[in-house]
Design a protein that fits this description.
Order of helices and strands: EHHEEEE
Strand order of the largest sheet: 1-5-4-3-2
CATH class: Alpha Beta
Largest sheet: 5 strands, mixed
Strand content: 25-35%
Number of domains: 1
CATH superfamily: RelE-like
CATH topology: YaeB-like fold
Shape: globular
Number of helices: 2
CATH architecture: 2-Layer Sandwich
Distance between the termini: 24 Å
Structural class: alpha+beta
Number of strands: 5
Amino acid sequence: MIFRPSFGRMARKEYGAAVRWYDKHRRGLGAEFEAEIQRTLARACEAPRRFAEVVADVRRIRMHRFPFVIFFRVRQDRLIVLAVFHARRDPTIWHERT
């Protein structure tokens, strides 16, 4: 079964903020970030349970090119994205979303 991603409100907001930040720093970099998010989510959707469970039923996948981690939960046929989180931020911040 291949899952499809679905973003929570805060995850969508973080995602958009990161795209805008990268675009400010170099034209087109935001689009590259978006493409990397899509590749990362595609990997997670193929086999979500192969990624580390960090909190009860919340898993994480690291992006390759950018210093971000995606936290997600598996529900039926969907991957619920809880956070698109910069790897240097305090990870306990997103815990309130679980």
